[in-house]
Amino acid sequence: MEITNFWVYFAARPLFWIVVTLIAFLLATALNRKVGGSALLHPVLVAMVLIMGLLQLSGTDYDTYFEGAQFIHFLLGPATVALAVPLFDHRERIRRLLVPLVVACISGSLTAVVSTVFIGQLLGASDALLLSLAPKSVTSPIAIGIADQIGGYPSLAAGLALMTGVIGCLLAPLVFKVLKTRSETAIGFSLGLSAHGFGTAYAMQRSTLTGAFAGLAMGLTGVLSSLLIPLVVRLMGLG
């Protein structure tokens, strides 16, 4: 009985869920290092599963959890803005490659949404599922906003975006090897475009140059996708 009262008391404290989130991420990071940095056990993915399991076991609703952990959510904004630092360091190289980068980003964004919706339609997916799948190749906060705008399920869109990031990081080394891609700018930009936040974190582990172009691709893809996806889904008979 005393243990139950102890849990009820601390589970209601905002600081508790911040601590739980940090501990889950530290455990997930340690596990990821143990397995050699595999994207299949990415710290974000593992921490998410651990927290979901704890919420399920304890019967805690998401609103209660978010009330405590929202400070970490707030830091997502400054963390994203911090990606501008490596972009500034490599601004001259980015300026020289701006036109091909924009063309690559537009073609990549269109390919991602058109191929996804087309394959989903062939497999008989519902319109709501297709509208949730459409923004899978952009970072989760933007995917949530796009899905909500076009009539999809924001929570499903966020989960699909995370899965896309994991799969992108798993397949990227093989793709680069097959295509014999050695350019750090090409590797970084393709990781940010196809695997958004996960790809950018992976690129940062390679070099600041790779990370800079991954961050640039992630930002450009998010902006362009928010403009292109609503138009594409309407042209394909959705929304």
Automatic annotation (TrEMBL):
InterPro entries, per database record: CidB/LrgB (IPR007300)
Bilayer topology term: Multi-pass membrane protein
Transmembrane segments: 6-28, 40-59, 71-88, 97-123, 156-179, 186-205, 211-233
Location (main, coarse): membrane
Domain of life: Bacteria
UniProt keyword terms in alphabetical order: Membrane, Transmembrane, Transmembrane helix
Localization (cell): Membrane
Protein's name according to its UniProt entry: LrgB family protein
Species whose genome carries this gene: Vreelandella vilamensis
